[in-house]
Amino acid sequence: MKTIIGIIGLGLIGGSIGFSLRKFNYNVIGFDFNKKNSDCALKIGIINKIVSFQDLIKISSIIILSIPVDEIIKILNNILNKVNKKQVVFDTGSTKYSICKSIISNKNRGRFVASHPIAGIENSGPQSARYNLFYRKNCIICDKKLSDPDALLTTNKIFNILKMNVSYMESKEHDIYISYVSHLPHVISFVLSRIIFKKFLYNKKKFIKIIGNGLISTTRLSKSSSDTWTPIFLDNRDNLIDTIHLYINFLKSFNNLLLEKNIYKIHKYLKKYNINKIINDINYE
Amino acid sequence: MKTIIGIIGLGLIGGSIGFSLRKFNYNVIGFDFNKKNSDCALKIGIINKIVSFQDLIKISSIIILSIPVDEIIKILNNILNKVNKKQVVFDTGSTKYSICKSIISNKNRGRFVASHPIAGIENSGPQSARYNLFYRKNCIICDKKLSDPDALLTTNKIFNILKMNVSYMESKEHDIYISYVSHLPHVISFVLSRIIFKKFLYNKKKFIKIIGNGLISTTRLSKSSSDTWTPIFLDNRDNLIDTIHLYINFLKSFNNLLLEKNIYKIHKYLKKYNINKIINDINYE
Fold first, then answer.
1. Residue A203 neighbours by CB distance under 10 Å
2. Quick one: DSSP state of residue B45?
């Protein structure tokens, strides 16, 4: 009998997982709280069948939760209460600590694997799903000691099929790091987008004339779904507030260099201490 | 006789102009203060010939200045003093006000056209030049009333060959707008890059595991050349300091929404007031 995989949430991430697994001949069933999404997912071939939430929990060997992080927290205990010792549940949320904390005393905690495939793009919905979304992207599995070895193995197998680079971290640590490399960039992009909106809303003609690629790439993330990102920002609020504070202080320091007209230090700032240096170092090591 | 076009500065922008104009059979000669750049430019076919600075000024019908803005200001008066009433000079600098101000009393002011082809990418040097860099990108010509009509016409012709969308602005206005849509995004990207550098310099293994596309696109601009961007930031310093201040205030407001856990307002912030709204409006108009 074919393994049945049940995906809850058929947006960009859930949809892309569905596409990939169907290519490998899995039987993929799905449920979305938004009927339009599940209808679209069935139509474009993300899933073999739409089922009810209850049926999905009952008949899936592997249950994948690709819904906003606040919704995961709302339903995860309920799902774990219903699964048996052979079923595996994993999520794809962008924060991990509060999800793991919410099920710490659940008797079936071991059946859950806290996962974060880092593969989001600015587009959302099943219509944006693509089978190669995860190719060679990072995936972090958190608090692996709290998952049963077989559940971990099964989840790993799925991410291997998606061709992801899997590694492990504590959930608390994950949330701190991800606030730097993902949540802060999103905030930066949304806030930049808002300033531009304010400056050019009543002057669109000027905007069309002066816009360039630099702005396009720096505001790319601001196209991301507010339904996905509001819960992420709130869930990782404490880390994110710290990170934004730090970023503001760094901006102030840079502004001070401008006020001082410190050519030497500005030149050094732009040239030396940046991400490309780390990436080069990694490539040479 | 073929029109001779002389390019001073054979990096990304100057080099890409050379490639494009040679495709249209112009005789393109070049000079770069860095001999390595001119040798490379000749070798890869950006220019037909390397000439001395003095010869370039003497024999070119059109002189294009693609060097950092502070260097333009240093040599522009000198160049204009030497040109005749048939020669045209235009620049490609990212700021316009101080360049225009520096030559306001030059007797040959009319031979100069202050231009900003908004087409830079994060890579620099002649080796990054490409003939289609300018395709359908914006180009702003500033203070056009101060240029002789024939000089304006000639410059426009070149930008038309490069397939750019040319429009006009006052130089002061240009520098304010560009501080929002280009200089601020560059600062944001450089500063983000610096934070990530600081956080992960001694923890590169974690960095490799957790990096994703969001960070890559938001820090793309931080790969830009410090030789190009230090003078731009300093030249547009007053506008940029104001813009960074405003950005810091916007970040603080966003942080306040997080502190208040204001789900409704955060959701609205992310969804409504951003650049994509303006772009959609433009597309529907």
1. 12
2. T
Which residues of chain B lie closer than 8 angstroms to A285, CB-CB? Answer: 204
**B235: CB partners within 8 A, 6+ apart:** B69, B70, B73, B95, B98
In order, the DSSP letters of A211-224 are --HHHHHHTGGGGS
A4-170: what fold? Rossmann fold (3.40.50)
Contact B233 A181 (CB under 8 A): no
Contact A275 B193 (CB under 8 A): yes
B193 pLDDT band, cuts 50/70/90, is very high
pLDDT of residue A142: 98
One-letter amino acid at A52 equals: S
Q: Which of residues 245-274 of A touch B (CB under 8 A)?
A: 245-248, 250-252, 254-255, 258-259, 261, 263, 266-271, 273-274
Give the model's pLDDT for residue B121: 82
B186–A251 C-beta distance less than 8 A: no
State both tokens at A32: 């979305």
Give the max Cα distance, chain A: 71
**Collapsed DSSP state (helix, strand, coil) of residue B228:** helix
For domain B174-284, say whether CATH 1.10.3660.10 is its number: yes
Which residues in chain B are closer than 8 Å to A202, comparing Cβ atoms? none
Q: Please state, in angstroms and rounded to a whole number, the distance separating the CA atoms of residues B192 and A171.
A: 23
Residue B209, φ and ψ in degrees, nearest 5:
-75, -30
What pLDDT score was predicted for residue A122? 80
* pLDDT given at position B1: 58
User: A210 and B285 in contact by Cβ < 8 A?
Assistant: no
Distance CA B117, CA B146 (A): 19
Asked if the Cβ–Cβ distance from A222 to B276 is below 8 Å, we say: yes
Chain B residues near residue A128 by CB distance under 8 angstroms: none
**DSSP character at residue B3:** P
Q: Which two tokens stand for residue B10?
A: 């054979």
* Distance between first and last Cα of chain A: 46
Q: Is A171 on the interface with B (CB under 8 A)?
A: no
Instruction: Identify the residue among A181, A200, A256, A271 best suited for mutation to test binding to B, counting B beta carbons within 10 A and taking the highest.
Output: A181
What is the Cα–Cα distance from A235 to A177, expressed in whole angstroms? 14
Q: Would you kindly state where each structural domain of chain A is located, as residue ranges? A: 4-170, 174-284
% of chain B with per-residue pLDDT over 90: 86
Closest CA to A113 of A71, A75, A65, A161: A65
For residue B260, the model assigns a pLDDT of 96
**A207 in contact with B at a CB cutoff of 8 Å?**
yes
Q: Classify residue B49 by burial, with Cβ atoms within 10 Å: 0-12, 13-18, 19+.
A: middle
Counting Cα atoms < 13 Å in the Cβ hemisphere of A279 gives 15
pTM here is 0.93
The model's confidence at residue A284, banded by pLDDT at 50, 70 and 90, is low
**Are B191 and A254 a contacting pair at CB < 8 A?**
yes
What ipTM does the predicted assembly reach? 0.93
| Contact between A181 and B196 using a beta-carbon 8 Å cutoff | yes
Whole-angstrom Cα distance, residue A133 to residue A163?
10
Find out whether A100 and A91 touch, Cβ atoms under 8 Å: no
Q: What is the mean pLDDT of residues A37-58?
A: 96
